[in-house]
Automatic annotation (TrEMBL):
Organism: Armillaria solidipes
Upper classification of the organism: Eukaryota, Fungi, Dikarya, Basidiomycota, Agaricomycotina
Domain of life: Eukaryota
Yeast cell wall synthesis Kre9/Knh1-like N-terminal domain location: 34-130
Biological process (GO), any one: (1->6)-beta-D-glucan biosynthetic process
InterPro entries for this protein: Kre9/Knh1, Kre9/Knh1-like_N
Keyword terms, alphabetized: Signal
Region named Disordered: 184-228
Signal peptide positions on this chain: 1-22
UniProt protein name: Yeast cell wall synthesis Kre9/Knh1-like N-terminal domain-containing protein
Amino acid sequence: MFSLSALVLACITLDFVLHTNAALSVRSLYVIEPDSGSSCHGGQNCTVEWLDDGVRPLLSSFGVSIVGLYTGTQQLVQNIDPVDTSTTHSLTFTPIPEAGPDSDTYYICFTSTSVFDNGTAVMAFSPFFQLDQMTGSFGTPLESATASIAIPTSLMQTSAADSTSELSTIIVGTLSTSLSSLTSLSATTPSTPSSSSTTSRFSTSSAPESTSTSAAGSAATQSGTANGALSRTGAVSPLVMGVLSLCYFIVCVL
């Protein structure tokens, strides 16, 4: 009876590990600006820049994305005009002062409209950065700032045309990563999404939390880290091998 119970427990653990690995397998674009510790100002232009991290999905596949300014666990503060990440590597937006308070827990989230992982749209996050000259509150979202922005038909058509040609890839090297909580993905010290503290972040699952609360950088119900640095690998992790070995031991010995 003991061996049967142990076997069931081991199999449940293995299933959890395999699903967790799958959720953390997504890569995305790598946000280089705003960087951790940088600042933008309410009512003034703020520039966002990104590169291809060299790992699938490439920017040519990530394509047209819905973009937003977030805080905490993927709390939308302000929607930003959609952008085709495969044809441009930067965008400029103006933070609405009334949309939130002065804080260093803001981050940018990109949600792909063409790449999905297990049915969930793949997301990429910037590191956390600061916004000042803000006059609003996180507790009372500004409706006009969070209203949906339609994706222009011309943008979708351009993306479809460009998808037939291969784009060059800019590889930014090996990125340090931080796991974020699998409940939402977010930024640098704030993926995933839940607790991490690096300058990278991306994903399929959780958004970052503020560095002041030592929360993790994102990605999310989508998965990733603050700037999309989690890697997809085909190899079985040591943890999975360990659980498999435990199952074998229980069946053969107990």
